[in-house]
Amino acid sequence: MFEWNIQNEIWKFKNYLKNSQKILLINHRRMDGDAYGSLAGFYYMLQKFWNYKVIATNDEITPESFQFLDENQIFDTDIALADFAPELIISFDVASLEQLGNVYKNNTSLFQNTTWVNIDHHISNNLFGNINIVDTSASSTCEIVWDIIKDFELEKYMDAKIATFLLTGIITDTNSFFNTNSSPKSLQSASEIMKFQPRHQDIIINLFKKKPYARLKLWGHILENLKDIKNGKIVWNSVPQSLFIQTKTTDKDISGLIDEFLTTLDGLEVWFLLYELPDKKIKWSFRSKTDLVDLNVFCSKWWGWWHARASWFVVEGKNIYEVEQEVIYELQKLI
Ligand SMILES: [Mn+2]
User: How far is the CA of 48 from the centre of ligand 1 (A)?
Assistant: First the structure.
């Protein structure tokens, strides 16, 4: 299941877990489905044993988007850790200490003087725990937690709720088994977890399919006036601030259109959206699936961030349609 050195860490963890009663669980700030699912799955597993006093903490409570998973709020955001005095700390999906935020900043010596189990799958994890169950071949921290549950022979305590948490992390970190980390192992883990009847459709609906009405209205306006050149290979539009106001949306409602919806357009190679922020700055998101445009040449003309296929730029002191004209002009030169 694990390589020998990780197996050794798991044995150590098992021992510490047996000999501790007060346990602190923590995951990273801005928790995602994997950070939340792995912590919550383990939290509810530990709840099944009468002798554990378990507290989960983070600077923030469960984000609204994950509240469909649990009617309870398990995060205590202002716990007096010195009073609780945990005997064991377990961190989930945390790659570096900065990701622990104020909880860690305000209790650094407690963290450093308590046995700490670091469960994670990030390649950048710097092994800050006393016990490091870090498996970079795992799709998600939830996949590792499932391995630990099997290793500790706790499968008989599994239920649909715990299974739903664990499946959430595997599904979100593999982007519904689309990303290249969708290994045979991750699918096998998911298949084993499916035996406990997790709410897998709820996960997909809530995390991938559900959209607010206002956002669809905004997308409708943008799609209706979509512009293109090269027979639809290059597609774009501009969103003035007035359209956000009219549809009661913000620029946060744009990313799904760029990264999920427009990518489904048949024949598309390059696409971008310019949008005006409340402070009049023009931001634009640029995506490319192919080498139709030399990205190194194109992207270096603008101020922003870019990597292989996705880039973001910001322009100040210009009208959105002026920026649009300039972008099209530069693009035309390169194709
Ligand atoms: Mn993760």
Answer: 25
- The predicted pLDDT at position 308 comes to 63
The pLDDT value given to residue 22: 98
248 and 191 in a common domain: no
Q: How many residues does the chain have?
A: 335
Tell how far the Cα of 221 is from the centroid of ligand 1, in angstroms.
35
CA distances in angstroms from 257 to 175, 176, 216, 227, listed in the order given:
16, 18, 9, 15
Q: What is the model's pTM? A: 0.81
Whichever domain contains 111, its CATH number is 3.90.1640.10
Give pLDDT, residue 294. Answer: 86
According to DSSP, the residues that pair with 67 across neighbouring strands are none
Domain boundary among 209, 235, 266: 209
Q: What is the Å distance from ligand 1's center to 173 Cα?
A: 6
Evaluate if residue 37 carries a pLDDT over 70: yes
Residue 24 CB contacts under 8 Å (≥ 6 apart), including other chains: 54, 55, 56, 57, 81, 84, 86, 88, 89, 90, 114
Domain of residue 43: give its range.
4-209
**What is the domain count for the chain?**
2
Instruction: Decide which of 153, 180, 209 is a domain's last residue.
Output: 209
Cα 92 to averaged position of ligand 1 atoms, centre (Å) = 8
Q: From the CA of 76, how far away is ligand 1's center (Å)? A: 22
Residue 1 has pLDDT above 60, yes or no: no
3 state DSSP class of 91: strand
Distance 140 CA to ligand 1 centre (A): 5
pLDDT digits (tens, 9 = 90+) for 218-265: 999 999 999 999 999 999 999 999 999 999 999 989 988 998 889 899
